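Annex B. Sample input.
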Amino acid sequence: MSETLSQPVRPPCAIILAAGKGTRMGSDLPKVVHRVGGEPMVSIVARACHAVGCSPLIVVVGHGREHVERALAGVSGDIRYALQAEQLGTGHAVLSARSRLEGLPDDTDVFVLCGDGPLIRESTLLTVLEVHRATGASATLATAVVDDPTGYGRIVRDSAGRFERIVEQKNASPEELSIREINPSYYCFQLGPMMHALSRVDRNARTGEYYLTDVPALLLAGGARVEVVEAVPAEDVLSINTPEQLAEVDRIYLRRRAAAQGARA
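Annex B, continued. Sample output.
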């Protein structure tokens, strides 16, 4: 009797958005190269991606790209750089990475993450990937429930509790503004459906930008499966837009690292 050999699971890849200027940080450096726990934020995100098997990593760079590349020089693995020459939103940033993804099959799993999120946990990424693959979703979003959702996109669900759309704060109704489940920008997509949906994203009339947050609703409208998993601890989504916020995240990161080292001792 012949046996069917199982095919090896293709590793996910990751797109790390690192083109922002971070103008409120009081520095000419890109925000993602500011240090947390003594190392650049973007390198912490890259190492978390490598830890869950992501390869390649495509880092979208713009302003100060040489600083980002220098910050990642000590990170191992297949790291590729894509240039977002003009800042036209998160959707445009992902499209800027298209050429670096050539040759990957359409069903490749792709994380899209922000390079300024150093409190990211490997366990969160693994949870998202597990749900994404188990359900056969075209997109899986990790969400967080926070006490103060101000500034974040809200997760709108239907009457059955299923994902419906992401609504940005500036476009939200008073009822939607009361939603405490937010989008902390932890995405996992299938490559082909993601790129097809991105090609249909309209430029926002107010900002002139193309938003990645439009993609899940477009996929859903086209009959694809979109999953949402509440997997991101509220502490992990703390914003870093000022030196004071950077210092707060640094304290949290150092505390975690000390706790992990103590557990291994």
